Amino acid sequence: MKKDQQRRASLIYHAKPKAGKTEVVPTKQYRTQRDLSLAYSPGVAIPCQEIQDKIENVYKYTNKGNLVAVISNGTAVLGLGNIGPEASKPVMEGKALLFKIFADIDVFDIEIDASDPDEFIKAVKSISPTFGGINLEDIKAPEAFYIEQKLKEELSIPVMHDDQHGTAIISCAALLNALELANKKIDKIRVVVSGAGAAAISCTKLYKSFGVNEKNIVMIDSRGVINNKREDLTEEKKEFLTNRKINTLEEAMVNSDVFIGLSQGNILTQKMLLSMSKNPIVFAMANPDPEINYDLACKTRDDIIMATGRSDLPNQVNNVLGFPYIFRGALDVRATIINDEMKIAAANSIAKLARESVPDEVNNAYSDDDFVYGENYIIPSPFDPRLIVEVSCAVAEAAMNSGVALKPIKDLKQYKKHLARRLNPTASTLQMVSDKITGMGKRIVFAEGEEERAIKAALIFKNSNFGVPILIGREQHIRETANRIGIDDIEGLEISNAALSDKNDFYKSFLFNKLQRKGYLERDCQRMVNLDRNVFGACMVALGDADGIVSGLTRSFDSTFNHIKRVISPKHNKQFFTMCIILNKERTVFIGDTNINERPHPNELADIAESMANAVRKLGHEPRVSFSSLSNFGSPLLPSTERARLAVSILETRSVDFEFDGEMSVEIALDYKLMKKNYPFCKLSDEANILVMPGLNSANISYKLLQKLGGGSVIGPILLGGEHPVQIVPMGATVADLLNAAIFNAYGSIE
After folding, report:
1. One of 40, 54, 60, 122 is an active-site residue; which one?
2. pLDDT, tens only, 72-101
3. How many CA atoms are closer than 13 Å to the CA of 609, on its beta-carbon side?
4. pTM of the shown model
5. 40 an active-site residue?
6. Could you say which of 21, 95, 184, 436 is catalytic?
7. Within 13 Å of residue 463, how many CA atoms lie on the same side as its CB?
8. Residue 208 is a catalytic residue
9. I need a labelling partner for 420 at 20 to 30 A (CA). Which of 21, 86, 569, 620 fits?
10. Angle between the 452-463 and 3-15 helix axes, to the nearest 10 degrees?
11. Residue-range domains of the chain with CATH
């Protein structure tokens, strides 16, 4: 993405439709006078008194136990430096967003106008009763060390400076696995650390905790090697004095085993890399440019194991692998501190996760190539759904074992199950699909290419490297529309004018051959190809000139679908149907058929269930199908529920590899405890995640109600069952909706 486009996109993202990235959402009913009297006066006085009598009750009656403060003074923001508290707020809001989507932790971001460390400490202490934990962020060294230490000493809630310890924990996990792959012993390795800021010092301290010999460590700051000749060192740097007679990075690199880069880009040369020992480990974590270019490093040493801070390269050292889950575990046991034992547990857990076999659903969703433990996979991907369970539990257990947990967890097995339910799947679902299509070059038709939303979505699709967008329309009109909305550069967008295309005769012949026995004349087919963008775009897909088509902005679903299905047929022995993905913080549910089949016969219901199960498994979920009804297993026994009962019977005759049962009501299907209590014979091993609705009305109404009132996100409807990928968006679809449709088209084209 070009810088000016990226700038514009970023500013729009942060400003619209509502300024900022977070909001406060009530968790209690507030519709009636009674609700308000309980929420505030006079009812609120009662929990106040309970807390006054016993201070620990604050965790019982308020959100303190799930509330973290992300606090900064803006003195060391990203690579921008000391930009001030106000300018740091977008970063802190972003951190708040990550806490919420990855670990379901609520956050208040707080920017403090205080560069003096003692003044900053005083401010944080004064607001600490509000919070269950404190995440310090973007505070410059050496003040960061002093601030964190004082707050840890004076507060009885978890405090962590993520810039220090987050990077340390994740890089340490990667180092443990890299050493195993390189067949090197941690107490024998020679380590060079480029950088001596908060992150570098914390990383090195944690490495020492794992067994790195301090005599084998050389640390380098902007003035050279930290050795006994230096007289300009802080107390933190003095811990890493070396007696070796070396002064430069080049000298330090000779025969070293590990390079840790937390400094600046392109300072590590090929010569230096060649001077390292066999199977060198290089963590070049400077952003945006690593200390050495990844491709250059791999070309120079074919035995290298390398990690960076970049998401577009293997082995990204990303703090999001750690801080959400460290705080999650700490909060859940009400830890008084985040101690070394908890950090070590987190690092070991992350390292262990990379060594384990990756579930099929993760492989299916993330990449064409399976994730296999090795030089290109030494730490998990940030969207691995196992992280919240394994890391949080490891941290919680370490807190309990080290005696800092005020609320120990008795049943860790149940706790893990609870953690799995906390994961917000919205980000991970979309990211997993996006990751798989990135760089594959799938060609997606935007049939209504003259529309503003289509142009914007196509540009994002291209600039995100999701594939090649093809706009159907008149080039002049497309350029005029783009200019009107402030887009000057549409290079890289293919434009195809149906009326002028040299493929017209080819497409017409194909269409006539398909429709000639369905009442269409050749001239009818010619007219459709020339004048109907949906037909023309569908012909492109059907004949291999594109991989999928997105439409629906200017016509109803039915109208658009009727035109496209003249060209693209259902798969053999299959039928078209649509599925909506309902995402909220506790679960992901798939509903079908939401748009096409008005009253499916039992065989059709069984077919829809089977196709949905396959699609859901491809998206990384283990399917559990409920045939939805107002009745539960014959109670009440009504003629209208018979189709669902028959569909279950039909599936029982097929060799399917997923769980299914019914008929059952939604309240039973989505409540496993209730299901097992009342219907212990039910074949589902957990709550259903696929709801096959008995008819179009119930399915369509359900997803639209959830979309408007449910408090979660809805993706879809996603059209399935066709010979080629087709997605039809609602007429009121946003740019994001169009983009998602294009992404799912590209995803659906992958065999």
Report:
1. 40
2. 999 988 778 899 999 999 999 999 999 998
3. 34
4. 0.68
5. yes
6. 95
7. 18
8. no
9. 21
10. 120
11. 3-27+63-157 (3.40.50.10380), 165-312 (3.40.50.720), 320-422 (3.40.50.720), 436-564 (3.40.50.10950), 577-722 (3.40.50.10750)
